[in-house]
Each structure stands twice: as C-alpha cells, then as structure tokens.
C-alpha cells in the first residue's frame, strides 16, 4: 500500500505544480473556428496528439494515464494529465478516452483542423456521427504505442478505420535501420563475439551465427 500511496502523492503534487505553471501561460482559443466532429491535431515534442472536438470547448482524446490505477479520486484523475502520468501510462499500457477543454488538450500549441482529410483515402463521416462515435468510446482502454494510440482512436471515429500514420512512419524507419546491410554485418560480428566469448561453439551457435545475419541480409 505504501508504494501506491507514495506514487499517488507524487503524481498529485505533479498535477498541482503543472496546473500552476500552465496558468502562467494560458492560450485562449477561438472556439468558433471548430465544429462538432472536427479532428484536431497538436504537435508535441516527439509526436502529434489527436482529438475529436465535441463542441462547447470540449475535446475527446485518448491519452495514457497511470493515475486511475493508483487512486479512485475522481477530482485528481480529472485534472490535466501531466508528463509523469503519461509516460508511466505508456509503460503500463493504461489509458483512457477522456474529455478535456481545448486549453488542456492543446497545452498552448497550434491546432490543426481536419488535416487528415487530405491524407486519408476515405471520406469522413458527418460531424455529428464522428462526435457520437468519439463519445461512445469514452472510458478506460488498453494502450499500445504501435497498435492503439490517440491517432488510431480519431481515425476510427472520423473515417471508420483504425490506423496510425505516425506508427507506419516509425516502423518504416526501424525497418530501414534493422534491415540494412550494415546491421547484417554488425549482427554477424556480434554473434561471433558472443559465441567465442562465452565459449559456446556448437552446431546451434554456428547455425545461429549464419542464419540471423542471412535473414537480415535477405530482408534488406
């Protein structure tokens, strides 16, 4: 119980501190620019965050959050999700589809509206249908950085297909790195080093030393 209480206190203090910092740099958004069912994008440090505008300064979005695992205090959970809560939520694969204000959702960043309409080959649903689908999914979800993140959520709501262009680009970069000829050579040298350093020169070790680099070579 003590570790959970410690974590709860840590995150609660982080929420209060982050909220106070946010008050110092509040950015006002013109809500007349957004319609119910619009897909909103805001750039973050390493990724783009997505949400669905519900009207009346409310945005539904999927965001990792560890705090609901640690406490049932609704007032604490409703406060803006801090970076600490978000990072541990990603690690624990815990997230929720929640409704926040435009200010809390965007956190001072510029908001892009329906940019995905130019990228996705599918036509978007009517705004009311998009918002209805977004509201229907409110609540706790299992989070996956690659298979179910905030982009998967909004793509399903607006276009009826659960996909993520960010995930695709990430996997594309990883594939280029892993399936390169340089990686093939490095894996071969690493296998040789491990085999001789650990003194495990065997048929299995020799076969593995050649199969792994060969597989990478064929995939490159």
From TrEMBL:
Pfam families: LRAT (PF04970). The keyword Membrane applies. The active site is at 150 (acyl-thioester intermediate). The chain crosses the membrane at residues 185-212. GO terms for cellular component: rough endoplasmic reticulum. GO terms for biological process: retinol metabolic process; vitamin A metabolic process. PROSITE patterns: LRAT. One of its GO terms (molecular function) is phosphatidylcholine-retinol O-acyltransferase activity. Residues 39-166 form the LRAT domain. Keywords: Acyltransferase, Membrane, Transferase, Transmembrane, Transmembrane helix. This is Lecithin retinol acyltransferase b, tandem duplicate 2.
